[in-house]
Amino acid sequence: MGKITPFLMFQNGKAEEAMNYYTSLIEDSEITSIVRYGANENGDEGTVMKASFSLKGQEFLCIDSNVKHEFSFTPSFSIYVACDSEEEIGHLYQKLIEDGQALMPLDDYGFSTKFGWLNDRFGVSWQIDLPK
């Protein structure tokens, strides 16, 4: 068995925009490869056929789906981020919530110092935590 890696499928050609956004928000993150659809291939030319990026050392794969699906991301699978400071959690939450949706607004829920759960503008679910 090879490596196990989270895989994100974006629709409407948003994969590259999402990767650029995520890697700009989180230190020690980078896009590591992008393979694009070419002319006369099964996807829109220039969109992401397959790409990889890392957030703080966690690798992700992603694609732009050329097939329209009746589903998208679900909050039952989310990216969990343990933050180191109030400033860091506040900044990250505010950036990710832009044009997104709060599932649990940033607050003290008793199980950590501060916690927030949201869907970002791409529909990806994030749990942002400042552990006790």
Describe this structure in a few short sentences.
With 132 residues, the protein is an alpha/beta fold.
Question: What would your notes on this structure say?
Answer:
The chain contains two helices and eight strands. The protein is an alpha/beta fold. A four-stranded mixed β-sheet has the order 1-4-3-2, covered by helices on one side. A four-stranded mixed β-sheet has the order 5-8-7-6, covered by helices on one side. The radius of gyration is 16 Å and the shape is elongated.
**Secondary-structure element pattern, one letter each:** EHEEEEHEEE
Task: Give, in spatial order, the strands making up the sheet with the most strands.
Answer: 1-4-3-2
Average pLDDT number: 96
Q: Assign a percent range to the helix content.
A: 10-25%
Structural class call reads alpha/beta
Largest sheet report: 4 strands, mixed
Shape: elongated
Number of strands: 8
Distance between the termini: 36 Å
Q: Which spans have pLDDT < 50 for at least 5 consecutive residues?
A: none
Beta-strand percent range: 35-45%
Number of helices: 2
Radius of gyration (CA) equals 16 Å
